[in-house]
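Hi R.,

Here's the chain you asked about this morning:
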Amino acid sequence: MEVYKLRYSFDPGSGICLWSENELARDRFGYPVELDSLEIAPPVKKLAEELIARFDTSLDWSDPAGPSPWSGAEFENFRADAASLLCSLQECLGTGFEIRDCTR
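And the predicted structure, written out as tokens:
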């Protein structure tokens, strides 16, 4: 059985945390995968949207090439929350999806 392969990563300003990694996924979802196109529980979708918006604050938009305004602790807290979200996404999507974690 073929599975939808997705990459899990955050990109400031993109509004996305899932990206298609195989042709099967691209044919169904396109390259960036919109949360609305997935069958995930509303609380998981809400958490994903909150983390995406939160990650946008990790960039100094007035100096994008400069240092992040986040402290090391803020990055660690985000990584922990992102790991929790990944588990929830995998649970919601089931065995028909394979999600590669690229957040590290």
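Residues 5 and 86 are 14 Å apart (CA to CA).

Let me know if you need anything else.
M.
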